[in-house]
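Q: What does the assembled structure look like for these inputs?
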Amino acid sequence: MGGLQKKKYERGSATNYITRNKARKKLQLSLPDFRRLCILKGIYPHEPKHKKKVNKGSTAPRTFYLLKDIRFLLHEPIVGKFREYKVFVRKLKKAYGKTEWSSVERLKENKPAYKLDHIIKERYPSFIDALRDIDDALCMCFLFSTFARTGKCHVQTIQLCRRLTVEWMNYVIASRALKKVQLHTHPTDVDYRVMATFTEFYTTLLGFINFRLYHSLNLLYPPKLDVKAESELKEENDDDYAMNSESYLEKLSALSASLARVVSTAEEDEAELDQFPVDGEDMANMEAREKEQKQEEAQKKLFEGLKFFLNREVPRESLAFLIRCFGGEVSWDKSVCIGSTYEVKDETITHQIVDRPNIDKQYINRYYIQPQWVYDCVNAKIILPVEDYFLGVTLPPHLSPFVEEKDGDYVPPEKLKIMALQRGEKPAHEQEDEEEEEEEDEEEEEEEEEDDNEEEGDDGEEAEEKNLKKMEEQRSQVKVTAGKVKVENPARLEQEEKAEEKRLAIMMMKKKEKYLYDKIMFGKKRKVREANKLAAKRKAHDDAEKSKKKARK
Amino acid sequence: MEWYRDFPHIGYNLDGKKIYKPIRNKDELDDFLDKMDNPDYWRTVPDKQTGSDVVLSDEQVQLVNRLQRGQFGDANFNEYEPQVEFFSRDVMLHPVTNRPADKRSFIPSLIEKEKVSKLVHAIKMGWIKPRRVEDDSRGRYYDLWANEDSSILARHKMHLPAPKIPLPGHQESYNPPPEYLFTDEERALWEQQDPCDRKLPFVPRKFSSLRQVPAFSRFIHERFERCLDLYLCPRQRKMRVNVNPEDLIPKLPKPKDLQPFPTTQSLVYRGHSGLVRSISVSPSGQWLASGSDDGSVRFWEVCSSRCLKTVQVGGAVKSVAWNPNPSVCLLAVALDSVVLILSPSLADRQVVLSSERLLSAPQEADANEGAGPVTWSETEGEELNHGIRLKIQHPKAVQQVSWHAKGDYVASVMPDHSSNLQVLIHQLSRRRSQNPFRKNKGLVQCVSFHPVRPYFFVGTQRSVRIYNLVKQEMTKKLQANSKWISSMAVHPGGDHVICGSYDCRLSWFDLDLSTKPYKMLRHHKKAVRGVAYHRLYPLFASASDDGTVIVCHGTVYNDLLQNPLIVPVKVLRGHEITHDLGVLDVTFHPTQPWVFSSGADATIRLFT
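A:
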């Protein structure tokens, strides 16, 4: 046969991938630099479909990058900056070694720096794309803003993170965009360089997003407090903070004052949805959407008209953020944080949030409640009854708003209760005990009934025995008696038939499909089993509680 | 002084005698007491020169204080005396010095020039960059997406966005509902498991109030792991199969539309005391013969389930087969190493006579008798009265007998691994036996004649061989794809074969299609013991050790292009499983859509 012999691994998937080391060599970067580049550019390894083919027959564990990605990195201007930085460090070291302080200074002045704007634009061509990835950025920035300003990371980074997160929270308050909230808990060797690189990227991203968001609401960026609020705040304590910039950030982070707008007429009318004449199916959709929107509007004004006061033991920032997001007014003790707007003594306060078993001095015209009430109200989208959240009361469970139960999943009874409240049914809270008692009575009655039934059953058996005896007697004289017509339930018969048909059809499945089918069914069954287990656990718990209550009585 | 550190003296006097150190035997306690008692303790200083303590005088203390404060030692020294200016900005008439100016103050410095030129050169060469203008654009934001143009294409199609971290559920709440908290067992289990096997990476905890919730200690770790996942974790696109399980179930014609087929158990034939290995229905459909391990062959009337006749044959019956020729009434019975030909005389006189005639056919050509491995003998006395007419003695244990459609030939199987003497064909009319194969590969399990053509099917352990008896050659070898074939049945049309195997499979072969099975049915849970085709209806049945008989509809089309339609229509239950054996044999009624099955529970059942 003629023609050139085909060589292995010169076409196909082997040519689409490149190992990490090769990629690094191609880019002429050290491993940390390569890592940083990958983080900034969002390049990640790919798992090839046929690893052995890509690995040229070897089964050694290697990470593969797409060759396309690496080629794309070749044109990145930041790579040049990395190299410059490397050179800079070398020169600096040399200058230090020679104790040439003037050149050290000169070099330090000319330290190469890079900007990430173009990378952000490239990774997120549209604003929506950027918003999609904001969760990681926010988490990271919030984490960094909590770090102590010593060692490990640059103080500037921490300050920047703090600034950005505060800006973000202020935006959310201004736009009232918060929907759900959950408190969760669960209980080093961490490479801070990696995290710092991520943070570098995320801060840039978050900054641009904040800018855009502020402008979408006609707010000034960087944020400025309202003139009125600013003057009020200024009067109080200007002397406590040495640095003006710092105090301004603190004031912002107090989250208690509204922000200055570009256009001073702050009240802009909500753009109402235009009504288009639509017909049939769309109508229902439209209605549903309108309803949803109305609900959202109502949720935004959840705490409007309420005045909160935070005691010093509650998490101030989170609660202030929440309450302000839903239109409430909030204040705290002056010594806790800058930016408190009214005192405890204010008579118009409606709710005071306290997280201790009891409080000495209580005002009559306000509710003293535990902080969970605020979170639960936000999730339920309604003002929940405050009785369950009074001081010293055992709190109802705090549920996650992110769980969306499909039919067949386990729904905790608390959620059902909240859903009933949302539907506008009256809270059957006080009648519960009575009902329970009634239920118990009913149960007892039922038990009695069951006993009766059993007795009846015994009767039946006896009757059967009698019949049998009779039959035996009759057997000697063979005789045909008229049979009873079996009453068959046609619906049930049909169901059974269907079930059998299905069983038979399953027998004829192909092996592959059967495997898949079995797997799906197994998953379904497991789900049901888990739901049942939870329900059983709950029932056992409730029973135990009930018996305890009874014992106490 | 340090030279004398280790010596008891601190020097020598003028006479060259040692000057001894004063004796110092103060310990810490003495020192302390001294400190308490002595009012001059604070001004007592050890003198290194003499080794003795010196109490400082008031002047000395004052001097020390002044020096410590950075003042002059002399208290009387005035440091702020008015300055006398020798040089002033006013030009005096007389110069202070009359020295002429240096030359270097007139001409530019060479050294400086050299330095400057070096700098200039460095700037020219780009070694020194001019001081950079402070760039404060870092950290200054603007509307990056001001002109969003879709021309910047999104990532290439291989881009896989990272999956989001799942949002916290009820368990992660600080105050979860009580059912989400771990019980003691669950907690123990959780602690035992490897961290990677755990379903939840944490133990749900309940706090009675928000105040008691500690800081989230794993926050940094969690974020760090997320970072690592984002840039280090290889990504792969996994196609999640999102199918409705109902769609996977094949759409088959409804069994209702494929009637008639047996649906209910209508009769049970009781009487045997051992497991019933084999059953056979007479060609007229009136009689049923069964052979059991209790050493008897019983004849039943099909419609009334009455046992008409019992023949004790003295050995576990392995196989019974009714002569398919309707004009004779004969039964072949295999037990131990004998094949018996019974004439049960359960038919018309005419038929009985014709079968008698067949059996008493002239014996001729006994030439090779004796030389062959088989001896034919007629029975006498008691046995004759029972209807046993002929005894064919084999050299080895016989497993199965099978009639030719014409009713003159009967084949018997003696499984013996790779022996050439495993299958024998006997001709009744001439009382002759022959071994059709010179050699036999494998262990023969069952044999069958083709219903129409002169073909002979031999089922071995793994395959079915088809021989042309006229041409005396093998025409086909069917690969069953199963470990051990147990039974075989040939379609009345002759173009299809089903094989049951001990590894729970039933394979359907289409002889025109391929030597591989057209369809493998894995609907039995245990070994398949018997299979049967119906002679008239498109039905076949399989009996298995799981106690069920599964009846399937199997239409065979005359059109060669259309594959047979196979639909399971009914699972028949009734037999009890005894000693891990369920249903042992199955056979159809020749004319009605009825199926008989015999089981290890010593019963035979009729399903109609």
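The first strand of chain B starts at residue 9 and ends at 12.
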